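Section: Multi-chain targets

For targets with more than one molecule, the full set of components is provided together so that the structure can be written out for the assembly as a whole rather than chain by chain. Components appear in the order listed by the source. The example entry contains two components.
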Amino acid sequence: MFEDLGVKDAFASITGQALLKAMLVVVIASLITVAVQKVLPRVAEKLGGKPRLYLLASVPLLRLLIIFATIVIVVPILVEPSFENMVAIFGALALALGFAFKDYANSLIAGIVTLYEMPYRPGDWIEVDGQYGEVRAIGTRAAEIVTPDDTVVIIPHNKLWNSLIANGNDGTDNLMCVADFHLEANHDVGRVRELLRDVAFTSPRTKTWQPVLVIVFNKPWGMHYRLKAYPFDPKEQFQFISELTARGSAELARQGVKFVSVPVSVG
Amino acid sequence: MKDNTNDNKAVSCLPGGLMPAEQWTLPQTSVRRSLKDAIRHALKQLQAGVSQAEEPFESMDELPELSAAQQRRLAPEPDYAHQAEAIACSLKQARSDGSLSREVVCLVAPPFSGMQQALTRFSEPEQPDSIQSSDETWRVIAPPDTLCFDDQEASEWWDRQDLSRPWVIPELADFWLRSLSGLALIRELFRRIANGDSGVGIVGCSSWCWRYWGHYLENAQMSPWTPAPMDADRLGAWFTYLASGNGKSMIVARMTGDGLYVLPLPEADDAENSKSRKKRKYSTFLRDLAATSRGNPGVALAIWQRSLRARPDDDAKLEETDDKTDKQSRAADCWVVPLGRLSLPSMPQSKESVTGFVLHGLLLHNGLDMASLEAVTGVSTYELSLVLSRLKRAELVTCDPLDQRWQVTPIGYPTVRRHLQSWGFPLDQF
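Its structure, encoded as tokens over all components, is:
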């Protein structure tokens, strides 16, 4: 079959020297890729803020450029870059990948689409299939996220085709946090909304130029308040929600507003 | 004649006068300088984890820094009474030409602009006519000892203040704490101003505090005014004015590296000696300084004081000239270290969120004591003292020995602002 495709002819001119040259290029490209993937995230950690996000987002893009450049350099070293040879090589590659590594190829293609469409970038806080965390790295086949419990979750890129991906900050450093308060009814709703707004505005972690909202729902069991605000750094989100909850609860208790609690059944 | 003299003084001590805050623009600098600053800032952040944090200031120049006497002569602190007069003149002019019609005017200025000190002078007994309002003297409203009030108590406190005759609040940031019970006083003041039942008044406010309250009271439209930004020409005129004392001496400042002239400014020099002017080449130092200090006079003056150098024997000469009569004109030579070679304070490596809370809290409140700082940041006293001592060693904050209030230093302000911006904290508009 490979003979029919002309692959044998295409590779007939490969010499040992050309092979060595190509391997050298691949090794150098791999080293640069590893260096980019190791060094840039470390540098980004030191910078913080927007420069951190931009630097993290540049990692997969640089990797794509390196891969592309390597292919452009290596192919002419190995084979004469004629139209027939190219068709033969890429046709054979497509066949091999299609039969042997269908799912792998699926993820690889999704990975390329990910780099282009950017549904998530390193530094983004995403949720896929119930797993929430910060995107640490975007590989060829899968993305790595780190959950708040410091667990690394590998998410294959082919989830892109059929899963809902929720992105909390979408490449920016603006991540909305929500603190919930479940209160008994029969209190001054306007006063509580004002008070919760003040709770957010007096937190040193709040980005005051972003909206601070207090939403209230009337439920059969009482009132459900949602205090929405942005922390100055997405990494602070859990500290921020905890602080809003603690300070809000203390102040509500001081004002005599009671929380509802659901009876817990045992056994 | 008297009016002209006053006008000249007003122009010199408040170059550019006052302007609506929305017209304020950042002094421009060269692309090369901007890139250099950005790269230096990024490198300093990267080096924070590698190099030693303890980096005491070390002069990069062989000449010694100015002695106290030399500093008093060449780059003294401004006279805030004159600045108060200049502010009053600017306001009067704005009212007369119709650009300012509100009874209560808000004057917003970045920290170290001297606005608070100038507004405090409004109530001094020997006021010039330009400051007095309709034959009535201004009354300074001082903040209460404790800032924790509920809405009712805040309303009662303001009821006790006499707002029927002209009043002035030198610094609004002294009237609040970023805590749940610390917001009521300013909230009530803005409510009264919006209702129009607060009489004639001036509210001075730090730009950081103003920005916060602008976000908090999103529907409040106070149309604040601000001092014009100090660009290169205004800085040159102001430094010359400060050094001139009685207005008859001329400061000559040249760069240490290449001898290019910084002062006198080309225009001033033009009148002095047109032949020598043609031969002189001028440095871009003042333009770079204006950009580095973001047009902030207090910051620019602090950097200027640090960059000036004089020979040790000049000290004695200056003392001698001090004793001479005011009528005698004199020339004082000094040298200026390039900004690139000047060691300005840098941020020590530390847990950035806690450092950010402390520095942001200090700027929002225009300085705080330890107890208030603990209340607004939520950081424990123990950790606060560690962070503050590190920042103090790095020359970024200082503690007033009289009232034990911690404040950001003018020389450290550019670094602090830049780092707060990198860390994502809300900034002021200047």
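Residues 2-22+79-227 of chain B form a domain with the Rossmann fold fold (CATH 3.40.50).
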